Amino acid sequence: MFEKTKCLMMHWPCTVMGGDPGHCKTASTWQEAKKSTSKCLGYLKCTNDECQVLVRPHTTTSSRVHQLEKASICGAPLRHIQCTGGDDGKYIVAITHTWSGGVRFINSGFHRHPRHSPASFGLKSGVDIQEVGLRK
């Protein structure tokens, strides 16, 4: 099942925060397993209230800065809206422990922001939505 889900691949834009050095996928318990921690990056939104453009943020800071330098299709600037759905009111954190006996997945909250999907932009599945809604 783990492979069928593409290693629990998430559609939310996330940045990997790191793991525990010295831990590995061949460990016999999840406590000794390879740990990967990711945080949700939220979304980019047009500052014009009449424009409904939402953009999936890039996962690196430098790429997001470049995205925010571009204008929405209406010409207004974009702003980065952080994810605040975590248990502490901050961003959501997903933790994956991978070991010889399987995978342990922990999610810290619920996304309270719009979902990023081709359908929300009126696009067909498989279309690259990274730059949809941005002026070239």
How many whole angstroms does the radius of gyration measure?
Answer: 17 Å
Largest sheet: 4 strands, antiparallel
Q: What sort of overall outline do the alpha carbons produce when their principal axes are compared?
A: elongated
DSSP summary: helix tally: 1
Proportion of strand residues: 25-35%
The separation of the N and C termini measures 40 Å
What percent of residues adopt helix (DSSP H or I)? under 10%
**Mean pLDDT, as a whole number?**
75
Low-confidence regions: 117-136
Return the structural class.
mainly beta
Structural features, described:
It contains 1 helix and 7 strands, in the order E-E-E-E-H-E-E-E. The strands form 2 sheets. Strands 1-2-6-7 form a 4-stranded antiparallel sheet, with no helix packed on it. Mean pLDDT is 75; it is low at 117-136. With 136 residues, it is mainly beta. It is 7% helix and 26% strand.
Keywords, please?
136 residues; mainly beta; 4-stranded antiparallel β-sheet; elongated; disordered C terminus
What's a concise summary of this model?
This protein has 1 helix and 7 strands; from the N terminus they run ββββαβββ. It is mainly β.
Furnish the topology, listing elements before pairings.
Layout: E1 14-18, E2 34-40, E3 43-46, E4 54-55, H1 61-69, E5 78-81, E6 93-99, E7 102-107
Antiparallel strand pairs: 1-2, 2-6, 3-4, 3-5, 6-7
